[in-house]
Amino acid sequence: MQEDDKNFILSTFLRGLYHGNSWFSLIPKNIFMVHYHKVATALVESPNHEKTIACLKDDPSVILGYAIHHQALDKIVLDYTFVKSSWRGIGI
Description:
27% strand, globular, 92 residues, alpha+beta, three-stranded antiparallel sheet
């Protein structure tokens, strides 16, 4: 993950949680975004969580998707994943 990637990851992470989970969408949007932004930032900036970015080979600044994951004992735990809708279903 490059520093420039952080805003994209945070915005898609927060929008995905809010709009993709009926439990989160029960919280007023402005309250969710302000307070959960702190949680999302801590996860994205955690040195214990790896961020794997899928990007265009010819232009690494174009993010197709990403995964946030960490090691727990002998397992890899997937915390969150996102792929742009036009790139889904092709193995990214």
